[in-house]
Known about the structure:
By secondary structure, the protein is an alpha/beta fold. It has one domain: Alpha-Beta Barrel (TIM Barrel). Helix content is about 25%, strand content about 15%. The protein contains seven helices and ten strands. The protein has helices at about 1-5, 45-50, 70-75, 80-85, 105-120, 165-180, 195-200, and strands spanning about 25, 30, 45, 60, 90, 125-130, 150-155, 185-190, 205-210, 220. The chain has a four-stranded parallel sheet with strand order 3-4-5-6. Strands 7-8-9-10 form a four-stranded mixed sheet, with no helix packed on it. It is globular, with a radius of gyration of 17 Å. The model is unreliable at about 210-220 (pLDDT under 50).
Amino acid sequence: MSKVNSERGGCVDVFHASLLKGTHYAGEYDFPVIKEEHDVPRRMIPFSKALREKKDFHQWVCFYEDDFLFERIWNQPSRYADALSKFEGVISPDFSVYYDMPYSMQLWNIFRSRTIGAWLQQQGIKVIPNIRFGDTRTFDCCCDGISKHSAIAIGSLGCLKVKAYRPTFEEGIDHVVRLLQPETIVFYGAAPANSPKIKELGIYVEIIKPQSFHNTEGVKR
């Protein structure tokens, strides 16, 4: 009914139902499906900076910055589709998912990221899904709608430096790797040094440095 009402004359699509047209869903919470992608980003540019870029489009747009800088893509995604289509691809939005958020809010932000990613793919833009989990309850559902044996992206900034967060983050990484068995993991920030699953599966790891948005060489972990 939300889709029907979103098309009714004079109705405002406050549910963003129009973004879900033609979308397939997966998992217990009906997260939108993002199709597999195998390209590997070598450079990234944050969304807020990408909107001002005029020449250098040989990079991927990411959302590893404060939420207020990209909340607008949720509210008006069609406004930014043309700008994003000039780049090599997009990492789906990294809406914050904190351990101390209510579980419902963690799910909501995962859903929003998945929705925008799936919608951008429908616009013909290459998308690598950003995998963001919060507490242990989100370890399974954060993988719903993500293709196995594909490329995924993970923002690790601050998650490994803070000792209190590190065990949960590393546990989550191994859980995600076990479920998705990705071909490639693109880390924005440091990669966990002792992930047994990454090493066991021989997954290709690409590390993008936060300060410069330039990469180190890809390595096998």
